Amino acid sequence: MSDGDDPLDRLSSHELHDLAVRRALRHLDVPFFVRLMKALPVAEAAAGEINEAAADALTLRAHIDDLTNSGRGEVADLLRPLYIEYLKEHDVTP
């Protein structure tokens, strides 16, 4: 299957987020959530959400609050590669 035929690529960023988070919760995959929390401040800064990025870098609570929001808007789009990589690692399909 070529990259253009990848069913994950056809999903929205929000759908990829939900699929990855559901899989991680179901399998209690803490390392995935750690990767996501590390990537969030970078994605938020790239999306122009500087205050959010600064708060996330300083507090765990801000990270936890943002986990649910990491599937929305430009931040979700910037995190697409992380979600796709994770889903492929675990052979998750839509």
Give a description of the structure.
With about 90 residues, the protein is mainly α. It contains five helices and no strands. It is about 70% helix and about 0% strand. The protein is globular. The chain has helices at about 15-25, 30-45, 50-60, 60-70, 75-90.
Describe how the helices and strands are arranged.
Layout: H1 13-26, H2 30-46, H3 50-58, H4 60-69, H5 73-89
Salient structural properties:
single chain, 94 residues, mainly alpha, 5 helices, 71% helix, 0% strand, globular
Low-confidence stretches: none
- SS content category: mainly alpha
> How many beta-strand elements?
0
Taking all residues together, what is the mean pLDDT?
84
Ends distance: 15 Å
Instruction: Tell me the overall shape.
Output: globular
* Beta fraction: under 5%
The largest sheet is:
none
Please write the string of helix (H) and strand (E) elements. Answer: HHHHH
Task: Offer a quick outline of the entry.
This protein has 94 residues and is mostly helical. The chain is built from five helices and no strands.
